[in-house]
Amino acid sequence: MQTSTRFNQAVTKLYRAFHDNTLHPECCKSCAVGNILDNTDSWKHLTETHGSTELSYVGKVHQNFGRKFNGYTPLELLKIEQAFLSGCGYSGPLNRSCRKPNDPTDKDRLFDGLSAVIGLLCQLDGVKNVMDCSKLFQYNATTNQRKHLVEL
User: Fold this and answer.
1) pTM exceeding 0.70
2) CA-CA to 97 of 20 to 30 Å: which in 49, 75, 147, 148?
3) Is 151 a member of any domain?
4) Residue 16 falls within a domain, yes or no?
5) Are 117 and 130 in contact (CB under 8 A)?
6) How many domains does the chain have?
7) What are the Cα distances from residue 15, in Å, to 20, 87, 95, 117?
């Protein structure tokens, strides 16, 4: 499967952060987008609230000018971060009322967040989800019925 440069670079950075234990959902430099953008937090000015998909004035300006950050538009970056937080068990943008996990750096939780992000990255690039293992087990996700295991 052919993937874009932005996809390959993003997945490589996220993979490295996951295995180096430098991934943290509540830190703008160490979250999914922070890692994709080389551990910078300048992206936080694209929105008013970490985890929101609503662009701030600055975000709208960059979006309208067609600006891209490591290949992703401001809106795509916000969607990526929202997918990560949601996958990690957060109920919405980070604020006092959002549901937060007890241990945000639990490896299983981070893996779920990264799986959600990689699924979205695949969707943004128009490729099949590389994290979907239903074909491996010949599992039909639409009917939730297991057919049979693939003979290996």
Assistant:
1) yes
2) 75
3) no
4) yes
5) no
6) 1
7) 9, 16, 27, 12
Secondary structure percentages of the chain, helix, strand, coil, to 5:
45, 5, 50
Q: Which residues of the chain have pLDDT under 50?
A: 145-152
Where in the sequence is the domain holding 121, given as residue range(s)?
5-146
pLDDT tens digits along 52-86: 999 999 999 999 999 999 999 999 999 999 999 99
Structure confidence at residue 43 (pLDDT): 95
Residue 64 has which token pair? 């309208």
The residue assigned the tokens 């639990």 is 106
Q: Which residues, including other chains, have CB under 8 Å from residue 29's CB and lie 6 or more apart?
A: 39, 40, 41
Mark out the alpha helices in 1-152 (DSSP H runs): 5-19, 32-36, 57-64, 74-87, 107-125
- Residue 124 belongs to a domain: yes
Residue 48 maps to a domain:
yes
